[in-house]
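Narrative of activities, Objective 1.

The group set out to show that a structural description can be obtained from nothing but a protein's sequence at a throughput compatible with the screening campaign. Below is one input-output pair from the validation batch, recorded exactly as produced.
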Amino acid sequence: MNWLKKFLRNAGVMTCLFLGAATWAADIDTMSNPPPFSFLQESDASHFSEAASRLEDEAMAFLGHAYAIKSRRFFLTPGTWVAYVKQADAAARDWNGTRQEIKGRRVGKDLLELWLDGKGQRAEALAMSEQPIDEEGRYLLGYFTLSPLAGR
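Output recorded for this entry:
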């Protein structure tokens, strides 16, 4: 019976260590993949959760069931979609990512881009609201790290 108590006590410690390591690994993954917009300040989505949810839902509707979101980051910006796409293009080249065609997307209307590496293991997407979301006339820019789902 004594061995059972020791096992259970150690199992609890091991579980805590495992969960801590998993959280740490997720944080490291996010930190090692910084968004390419160093001059924009990242914004807490809770301040505009409705707009952030809508932006994410619209992006995922275009991407279908091929991806799951691993991480999401939001920025407030005065606009200039093309400039952000060019910056994301440059950042994607660092990990051998290339911009992908998105079926059904209307160029110039649907502000969404997708990058994928040649092995299909890494994907990132960029989306921007069509209308300003605050009194200052700023748009919401969403940067999503995606996980390609099996069968893609």
